[in-house]
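This entry is passed on directly below:
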Amino acid sequence: MRKLGEKEAIKIILDVLRKSQGSLTTREIEEETKKLLVSCPDNTPVFLNRLRIQGIVEGRLSRERRGWVWWIKK
């Protein structure tokens, strides 16, 4: 498993979200990055929340999906 730098991690997460055609849970994003044999610079939830604060991705807590869901602004 290769740990990504921040810019590369952002690119991969945005690619994963674009391919999803909707929102993904934190767990689903982790599964997709594991398939690529890479990991985020921090742990995935912390990294995704930083991207949300920076306005790179959107996220909210979902009761139905029992966790945070993430998507890209249209």
